[in-house]
Write a structure and sequence with these properties.
The structure holds 2 protein chains of 2 kinds. Chain A is an alpha/beta fold. Chain A is about 35% helix and about 20% strand. In chain A, the strands form 5 sheets. In chain A, strands 1, 2, 6, 7, 8, 9, 16 and 17 form an 8-stranded mixed beta sheet that branches. The chains are: A alpha/beta, B mainly alpha. The structure holds flavin-adenine dinucleotide (FAD). Chain A: One of its GO terms (cellular component) is plasma membrane.
Chain lengths: ~575, ~90
Amino acid sequence: MGVTVRKFDALIIGAGGAGLRAALQLANAEASVAVVSKVFPTRSHTVAAQGGVNAALANVLPDSWHWHMYDTVKGSDWLGDQDAIEYMCRAAPKVVYELEHFGVPFSRLDNGNIYQRAFGGQSQHFGKEQAARTCAAADRTGHAILHSLYQQNIRAKTHFFDEYFAVDLLKDEEGYVLGALAFEILTGEPIVIEAKTTLLATGGVGQLFRTCTNALINTGDGMSMALRAGIPLQDMEFFQFHPTGIAGRGMLITEGARGEGGYLLNADGERFMERYAPNAKDLASRDVVSRAIYTEVKEGRGCGPEKDYVLLQLTHLGRDKIMQRLPGIRETCITFLGLDPIDHPIPIYPTAHYTMGGIPTNRFGQVVVPVKDTPEDPVPGLYAAGEAACVSVHGANRLGGNSLLDILVFGRAAANHIIDVLEHNRYHRPLHQPAVDAALERFHRWDRKGDGEHVDQLRQELRKVMEAHCGVFRTEEVMAEGVAKVKAIAERVKDAVLRDHSKVFNTARVEAMELENLVDCALATVQSALGRKESRGAHSRIDYPDRDDTHWLKHTLYFKHSDSLDYKPVRTKPMTVESFPPKVRVY
Amino acid sequence: MTTDEQLASSDVEALRRLRWSCRRGMLELDLLLEAFLKHGFVKLDARGRETFERLLDYPDTTLLQLLMGQMQSSDRDVAHVVEFIRQTARHPS
Ligand SMILES: Cc1cc2nc3c(=O)[nH]c(=O)nc-3n(C[C@H](O)[C@H](O)[C@H](O)COP(=O)(O)OP(=O)(O)OC[C@H]3O[C@@H](n4cnc5c(N)ncnc54)[C@H](O)[C@@H]3O)c2cc1C
């Protein structure tokens, strides 16, 4: 039976900020563009971003792209690539003004200029006074960006495949990427989308961890598609955690709650942070608080029937202060827990927030892999941008407001490079049938009937294993056990079957393929974390508590087919300015 | 009994479609809508179900404000379903 085939100049997989920004640039350059998204585009995860996007506009306080660059390099714990960081910080003002032009209603100052708020990690004069660099559209910046870009794309006649699930990349024998196999969720019918260039913009993989802030759709599909196509993932050990998520649910309780005087308690009613950080106590840095919570739970002092969380006490602040200063937190607790923090403490556990690692690219968005002695050889026809990619501007740790910037700058940069390539490549390369057959086989694997485990059960187990073995408490022993457990789950996934084999809107099939993707990303993450024997940025190991620039100022690469690691140098040389050499990272 | 078990097979397809419409860009919405679909949806009458479908067409940010109680809908049907979803989140069974 023949599979439908469609042809475009460019295929964009993912309709978040990165995918839509790229698509718009291409459509405006008269390229034929297809955007595939598993959910309706404006339901992409970018919609969740509230805080804002960074750009050195100097509207509120003095600022420069060079200071922004310094902050980003320092934030990355010197693992970020300085050429890409310079490019991003220089491009930031332009990208924000473009958004304004596309219709994003930024909050304004009285003089009409875009308002900018101060966030942690922003400085003037290379680490001195606080800077104010974040532009926001009230508290719905992500929403405003996504909706404006979507409208612009409709106007520019971008072709949308809404509610289509991308399965695998199609590659020919010479290594050219020729598009992808996807299927329509409504009908269950597969489709081949051929393209001269393909961009992966599928977002992050927060769903790896039981407690996370990410939507259910963030399952690392594009990362896993890359892995299966023989492309490594870069720096997957770097995952940003926030110490105070609502236990069992994941949503953030902002630092503001502790800033106002809230404190953490264990099952004995002890203010345990006094033991871990006698001076800063509950206001110690994120990783210290996260690890303290983990340790309390691990040592049996957790609360609740499963003893698997601690408590955040706010009741002593009193009704007025909570109503005035922390109304959002109160609403969240009432809605999701049915408890009012005015009367009851809040169950808390560290929550996974942002994927720093991803598909390795250069600053043009080209996916790059090591070939013989070249650490970064472009994969012809393949690009990646956004949280799915690792360009790498966030290095070991991302600064607030820099990821919306990343998705816009590199979505746009990738599109510009694609436009160039399209000028010189007028024809599609011939479709490679064996690649289509292999992708179809993977797709049809879920037609298998008989006995087997439930997909949902395996997903929950995987997320628990990742939380326990590759979360905020990392040692050789804990992670080695994690590798074994993830591999055991991977074996069980091979035998899992669907109960429901109907075609129309079979979301069980989607979830099964998401599970396969999560498993690939899980192994990449825990193997990369086990490999890195130092603490840097978000990767903090109990057995190697210090940063080790002599041995570890390098990027990790994880390969699926050989289940092995390799490393490549950090690009410490910026485009035009002097390099920022590593220093101790203190705030 | 969960929703799946109580629906006629002809409705199951419609329910699957709704389930995917409940996949949103925000974890908060995923959790609220998924729990509702599992435990609350079946208790809605035809009009309530139609309203729920209409609600799913709202942008994520509006839906969040409604479900978090930061905004009230002037449409009485919508306000009723929103309240029902909020109750279900607190007492899922
Ligand atoms: C709660 C929260 C708040 C945040 N706030 C901020 C902030 O204030 N400032 C900031 O800079 N950053 C913030 N971030 C981070 C930022 O929102 C994300 O990093 C960014 O939005 C990612 O955008 P993206 O375009 O890469 O991917 P996404 O927006 O996640 O989009 C991914 C797209 O890929 C599609 N897709 C995925 N898999 C498939 C598949 N198999 N087939 C077809 N389509 C697929 C999806 O449908 C979706 O369209 C926040 C994150 C969270 C969780």
